[in-house]
Amino acid sequence: MGRALGEFEQMVLLALVRLGDDAYGVRIKEEIERRTGRELFIGAVYTALARLQKSGAVSSRVGEPTAKRGGRRKKFYRLEPAGEVALNRAYAAYREMTSGIEPKLESMGTSRGSS
């Protein structure tokens, strides 16, 4: 994975880290929505997962069929070493860019009031 991750791709990879072995499309969508307050289309999640899988950042496996899902199988996703490297680089860049300005960032939006 040679290119930089986009913001949404970073969120998808972070959701994979949080969810571990239980990372499948709907759970990933719900995790991102819950933590960001953004409403997502499931198609956007699957598009990002396909892009990440194509780049080698993510792999997938099909789970066992379940009666609860009418015999359908879930597709589970896993962060691969290339994804770990890309996510680590993105996180390091973010930390470097925010280093020393955290108080300023935290006060933004509150110091000007909201109308």
How does this model look, in words?
The protein is mostly helical. The protein has one domain: Arc Repressor Mutant, subunit A (Orthogonal Bundle). 55% of the residues lie in helices and 9% in strands. Strands 1-2 form a two-stranded antiparallel sheet. The chain starts with 6 loop residues before the first helix and ends in an 8-residue tail after the last helix.
Number of helices: 5
The CATH class label is Mainly Alpha
Main sheet: strands, sense, barrel: 2 strands, antiparallel
CATH superfamily: Winged helix-like DNA-binding domain superfamily/Winged helix DNA-binding domain
Radius of gyration: 17 Å
Q: In the CATH classification, which architecture applies?
A: Orthogonal Bundle
| Total E-strand runs | 2
Low-pLDDT segments: none
> What class do helices, strands and sheet pairing give?
mainly alpha
Q: What's the quick description here?
A:
The chain is mainly alpha-helical. The chain is 55% helix and 9% strand. It contains 5 helices and 2 strands; from the N terminus they run αααββαα.
Question: What brief labels describe this structure?
Answer:
single chain, 115 residues, mainly alpha, Arc Repressor Mutant, subunit A, two-stranded antiparallel sheet, 5 helices, globular
Secondary-structure map:
Blueprint: H1 7-19, H2 25-36, H3 42-55, E1 58-62, E2 75-79, H4 81-98, H5 102-107
Antiparallel strand pairs: 1-2
